[in-house]
UniProtKB/TrEMBL annotation:
Belongs to the SRR1 family. It comes from the Eukaryota. GO terms for cellular component: cytoplasm; nucleus. The lineage of its organism: Eukaryota, Metazoa, Chordata, Craniata, Vertebrata. It holds the Pfam family SRR1. This is SRR1L protein. Residues 11-173 form the SRR1-like domain.
Length: 220
């Protein structure tokens, strides 16, 4: 019910999916649960596995091979979340990702037209707002801060078996009319996020070393 809420609210059905931060599902039960839910989600929303691309710099060579056997695609580079939807309705599956990834994703698609074609399953934006001081949210994660009033959010229901797997996880979407009702000034502020004052960006940046094997590393 939670994952169909955007469609019931008028959102365009996703034609493709991007998954960030799945983690080491070969050794983590929580990551395996998240992968299983992703596969069921694709089936429920009728998104072909070949239209779902994943990236996590910690993937091992074996995990990369398993994802290929499941028919999923791998993004070749660490985009740091800066993935353009390129006009296609897109589901972003980002359970327990760092705040900077969500902020980068919003920046890369910073227009009412693009955001209205996105659905994000990941850490609750409302929870992020509640946990951070307003000045920190606006300074370090300004795109999350600016889009809050244009966001609809439904939390995934609690389940005792999967408490650690999907805690603080919500489905977010951005109705076009709500976005158009935001102050026009916010759409003109499109500076790329850099995080100079952020002590812990919570993401593995491009060029950082990771304990795993990225698709790029496998090919080289």
């Amino acid at each position: 019910g939670a994952v169909r809420a955007p469609l019931d609210g008028g959102a365009e059905p996703p034609a493709r999916c991007v998954c960030y931060g799945l983690g080491r599902f070969g050794s983590s039960p929580a990551a395996r649960g998240q992968l299983a839910f992703l596969l069921l989600l694709l089936e429920e929303l009728r998104v072909p596995p070949g239209q779902c691309a994943l990236f996590d710099p910690v993937f091992s060579a074996q995990e990369v091979a398993v994802l290929g056997q499941l028919g999923l695609r791998l993004l070749p580079d660490n985009e740091e979340g800066k993935h353009s939807i390129e006009g296609a309705a897109t589901l972003f599956y980002m359970v327990h990702c760092g705040k900077a990834l969500y902020n980068n994703l919003l920046w890369r698609n910073w227009s009412a037209e693009a955001l209205s074609k996105m659905v994000i399953i990941g850490n609750s934006f409302k929870g992020t707002e509640e946990r951070l001081l307003p000045r920190v949210l606006e300074r370090d994660y300004s795109y999350i801060a600016k889009v809050l009033k244009g966001t609809e959010e439904v939390a995934l229901p609690d389940h005792p078996r999967y408490q650690d797997t999907f805690n603080d996880t919500s489905v977010h979407w951005f109705p076009l009319q709500k976005l158009k009702d935001l102050s026009p000034e916010i759409w003109g502020l499109v500076e790329e996020p850099m995080y100079p004052d952020c002590d812990d960006v919570e993401i593995i940046r491009k060029g950082d070393r990771a304990d795993g094997c990225s698709p790029t590393a496998l090919e080289s």
